[in-house]
Amino acid sequence: MPNMPPPKRPTILAGTSDPLKGSSPSILLGVTGSIAAYKSLDLIRRLSDEGMSTRVVATRNARPFFPFLSAEIFSDNKVETDLFSGGEGKGRIRHLDLLDKADLLLVAPATANFIARISLGMADDLLSSIALSARIPILLAPAMEEAMYLHPASMEHRKRLQDRGVREIVPEEGPLASGRSGKGRMAPVDRIVEAVREALALSGSPGGSLSGRKVLVSSGPTYEPLDPVRFIGNRSSGLMGMAIVKAACALGAQVTLVSGPTALPPPSGVELHRVETAQEMGKALDRLFPETDILVMAAAVSDYRPLASLSEKKKKDGREWSLSLSENSDILKGLSARRRPEQRLVGFAAESELDVEKLRQKCRAKGVDLLVANDISKPDIGFGSAENEALLVFPDGRSLPVPRTSKETLAFRIFENLP
To answer: In the annotation, is 234 catalytic?
Structure first.
């Protein structure tokens, strides 16, 4: 594949802070008792390079693994450990005092023990008290042996935290402290820093590289009714489309969402149009497209619909039920045919295998500026998963692989690489 220049980084806002413009978002970096704690020194340096200030909060078990003096030199702040030390000012409570000055809490590395304790609402030291009191974004970068990471109890704790809005920076597979190899190795520093930037963007005020632009996103499945009870549909959860909506909002766009049947609520300020069938989605997009600057067609639109839908539920009668299906029109191709020169279009392709040449042809045939292809044959990415991996294909023949990552990160990659 041809080499591509490094992607542009999005402008990130946290409150009124922008790490690319000299102001300084404040990061609380929690360090727990893992051998991966040494990597947190590099993390402090990298966050500083990004224009962010860091205050380190370490647990008691972190002390054997983490060089406090080096961390204080790198961060230019004392490493905080004591829940009961005095706050800065009369009547201040230490963990709340630290939170008052922070834009984001990042725990890297996060041990299985720490994750379990905050999942259960325990708060018996400074870092867990901060986590339980936080009303700012929380990111966890787990680091542990594979058996611990995949243990049902650990999986339950992480799921509970994710349901509460805590974001996990998924660990890698590789050599572990035991000498074995498996999943549980803390994510690379580059990926952690990128997750911090994105979390700050998603919590920030309007602004950024899409400021003033109108973004139209389609998301979720479509359902084609067979009778009042049954339908033809697909496995799309709408998670990828919602990640795109959030990224566009974070980058300052005015966002409109046309969503098939999902239970996902959009962020406040997003104009929502709910539809069910492919024809309903086509009509909604057709109406909204003329005022759009960027269209991202992330919906998994049904390719076929029944020629006729029964008005009453079909009863079992011991006989075969044969269906006649009609092909739905290609919504994206139709919109592309009447686009204005300045409009930008992004399409998605869910494929059983990624044939680069066929994808290039599809990109050109659809008339899009970027085609996002993902392999649906892999069970742990794509439909219903929090993660995805993709191949970004451009009409000029270039292609850019995006390795397995969160759907939020992939959403930012799409906007970063949109011509």
So the answer is: yes
